Amino acid sequence: MTENNLSDRFVERRLKRGTQTLRELSDDLRVTREQLDFLIDEAQEKEIRAMFAETPDAALEHHQAQRHLEVMQRHHDHLVAKIAEQKVHQDQLLDKLGN
Predict the structure, then answer these.
(1) pTM
(2) Which residues form the domain of 17?
(3) In whole angstroms, what is the distance from residue 33 CA to residue 67 CA?
């Protein structure tokens, strides 16, 4: 087995792992988007409730819902960035395999 064959096998294994990672990140992103949609609706509902109720409890509920939404949005953004990074890495590995 030549050094080139070993290198190709190594790259192929990394590509397979990368494909699995992309699949997992995409699944996580899908679930996160569903949760994000729910949290957006919940935060909007609690914001309206807080405006009309004008009570400290309603304001606190709105603040907590908004914080949950912000955390989920950061997680969503992180996943989108990780997927983009992983795709770039996969492309680089494919380029190595092609050479």
Answers:
(1) 0.84
(2) 3-98
(3) 16
**Average of pLDDT values for 36-65?**
93
Instruction: Tell me the C-alpha distance between 25 and 51, whole Å.
Output: 38
Phi, psi for 25 (deg, rounded to 5):
-65, -40
| Number of compact structural domains in the chain | 1
State the Cα–Cα distance between residues 77 and 33, nearest whole angstrom: 10
pLDDT digits (tens, 9 = 90+) for 51-65: 888 888 999 999 999
For residue 66, give Cα distances in angstroms to 13, 29, 38, 52, 83: 42, 20, 12, 17, 26
pLDDT single digits (tens) 18-30: 999 999 999 999 9
Contact yes or no for 26/83 (Cβ under 8 A): yes
Instruction: Answer for the pair 79, 34: CB distance below 8 angstroms, yes or no.
Output: no
